[in-house]
Specification:
mainly alpha
């Protein structure tokens, strides 16, 4: 079982950051498994987009220089 209090400490995210990935901001105690799955998917999508952006920058740099 995941200790939500520890997870909350580990995340160290602001209320706006939590809201931006879809987690209820009132309290971690109200997070459901669905909330956490949805937030995980959003974070994974953001990381994938970031990686794609970096890859594109690297390709552009190779092509121009």
């Amino acid at each position: 079982m995941i200790d939500l209090q520890e997870l909350h400490k580990d995340l160290k995210m602001s209320v706006l950051e939590l809201a931006s990935i879809g987690l209820p901001t009132a309290s971690y105690r109200f997070w459901t498994a669905t909330d956490i799955r949805r937030a995980t998917a959003k974070v994974a999508e953001r990381l994938a987009n970031w990686a794609a952006s970096i890859e594109q920058e690297e390709r552009d740099a190779r092509n121009t220089g």
